[in-house]
Amino acid sequence: MLPFLQTTRGTSTTQPLSEKQEVNITFVKASGERIKAKGKIGDTILDIVVNNEIDLDGYGACEGTLTCSTCHLIFPKEVYDTLPDKPTDEELDMLDLAYELTDTYFNYLNNYFINLSRLGCQIVMTKELDGIEVRVPTTINDARA
User: For the chain, how many structural domains are there in total?
Assistant: First the structure.
């Protein structure tokens, strides 16, 4: 066999793609109940709620079209600071209508105000977000009503 046609067999030390892409998230309800769920890298938090059939009353009513605020979640500051994308103006408009919107604080390093509330339909899970905990507000407000 010609040298350039030879193939070598190696053993892979990486995990299968399906295992590698799995992420975990815990939802903490106002009652203190903790709901653990699994998703995939690239899923939104709304996708994870729907795919795991998690019972969060009214959550995600608009199915991620940014026309309600029912997927409002509250993040710990240390998690919020690691979210891959900042909220868009459209998301901020919807958050203004959400119940239990968290207080804002001023980020002196980047010179802007930050709110620890985000819409789950706008948060795309990454490997860095694996294992996060988010708080589910006591009540929701469907901005479409």
Answer: 1
CATH number at residue 64: 3.10.20.30
Confidence of residue 57 (pLDDT cuts 50, 70, 90): confident
Tokens for 32? 């203190």
Q: Is 89 helix (H, G, I), strand (E, B) or coil?
A: helix
CA distance 132 to 128: 9
Q: Report yes or no on 51 lying in a domain.
A: yes
- This prediction's pTM: 0.76
**Residue 126 falls within a domain, yes or no?**
yes
Residue 113 in any domain: the answer is yes
Strands 22-28, 34-40: parallel, antiparallel or unpaired by DSSP? Answer: antiparallel
The whole-angstrom separation of Cα 82 and Cα 107 is: 14
Tokens linked to 101? 């919107």
